[in-house]
Structures are given as C-alpha cells and as structure tokens.
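tokens incoming
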C-alpha cells in the first residue's frame, strides 16, 4: 500500500471518527433539549384518545377509549368518558381506579408494579437523570416531529415492558409531548394521543385532592 493510500485511509477514518463524536454530541443535546422543554410544563390538561392493541392467539383486538387528563408532578389523572365513565389516578406509589358507580380499586403493594409506576412518572415528568439510569435511549426527528424510544435496562421490568416510546413536535425554542406508546413483551401495546392541550402554573384545590 502506497503512502498516499495510507494517508487517504487515515483521513477517511479520522473524518468518520469526528463525525461520530459530533453526531453523538448533537443527539444528546437534541434529546436533552426535548425532555427539558417538556418537563418545564409541570401541569397540563387536555383530551386523550387511548388505543389498546391486545395480542391474542386468535389475532389482535383493538380497544379504544377517550376522555380528559391531568398531568402534574404529583401524578396522572385520566377521566374516561367513552365507552364507560371512570377515573384512573396514577402516582409513584399506587394506581387508583374509580368506576362510574364509585367503586375504588387500589394497586400498589407489588414491588415490580412500584418500579414501573415510578419510572412511568419519571418519563412523563421527563426526569432525565432517572431516564438515563433506567433506559437505553433512541432519539430521532422527522421534520418538526421528535421520537424517543426508551428500552428498560432493568431485567425485571423488561420482562413486561419492551419499550416506552414518546413522540411530539418541536420548534427552535420549544417542544411539546403529543403522546406515547407502551409496548409490552407479549406484543400488546397501549398508545395515548393528546389534543387540546393547555398548561397551568398551579393545581387547583380540587385537583390537589386527586392525589391524596
């Protein structure tokens, strides 16, 4: 191999290495920018549509529901309107479901559930430290849309959860969460799409009682 060929090969390798580090740096900056902007909006309300795809031996069954929601650092409240009215409260330590008849069902004693619930809240709050500690990240953009796929590092959680995928839109100055998909290891998945989103600075007294 002549000296010119060696130099050419070296230059290509050097450029590739530099590009790799630049792209890695940009990836981190872009993902951090998105999560930071989303997390700054501590309290949001709006409408949601839930699409639940259940994988069965006979095929895939799709169930849909819709209603309104409340996201805050204390938890998540889902007020289903269709097909049945119910309220679901998700906190770091428990999940509470209230039926249309007023019957209350509470979950939270299982350690695996607590781990998933804590991480779920951290993801929705865009807690970057918790996300980096518990997930492998895959970030991409398409036009003004962003996508972050989070795959659990914890082997106990990964037995049930394949990935937690968030998506939304962004500008040069801001970013919004449009929804997320939880993909389970049995190939079932739950997707939430958000619309008519509004932000507020503080919880009302009535909203505070939801998470007690």
């Amino acid at each position: 191999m002549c000296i010119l060929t060696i130099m050419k090969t070296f230059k290509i390798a050097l450029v590739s290495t530099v590009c790799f580090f630049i792209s890695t740096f940009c990836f981190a900056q872009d993902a951090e920018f998105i999560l930071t902007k989303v997390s700054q909006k501590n309290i949001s309300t709006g409408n949601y549509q839930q699409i639940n795809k259940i994988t069965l031996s006979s095929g895939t069954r799709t169930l849909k529901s819709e209603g309104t929601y409340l996201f805050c650092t204390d938890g998540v409240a889902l007020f289903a309107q269709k097909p049945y009215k119910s309220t679901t409260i998700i906190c770091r330590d428990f999940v509470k479901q209230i039926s249309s008849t007023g019957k209350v069902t509470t979950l939270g004693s299982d350690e695996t559930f607590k781990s998933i619930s804590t991480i779920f809240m951290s993801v929705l709050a865009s807690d970057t430290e918790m996300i980096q500690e518990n997930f492998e990240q895959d970030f991409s953009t398409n036009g003004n849309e962003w996508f972050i796929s989070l795959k659990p590092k914890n082997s106990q959680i990964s037995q049930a959860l394949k990935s937690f995928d968030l998506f939304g839109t962004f500008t040069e100055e801001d970013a919004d969460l449009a929804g997320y998909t939880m993909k389970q290891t049995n190939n079932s998945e739950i997707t939430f799409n958000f619309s008519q989103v509004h932000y507020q600075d503080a919880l009302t007294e009535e909203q505070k009682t939801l998470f007690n």
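note: DSSP finds five helices and eleven strands in the chain.
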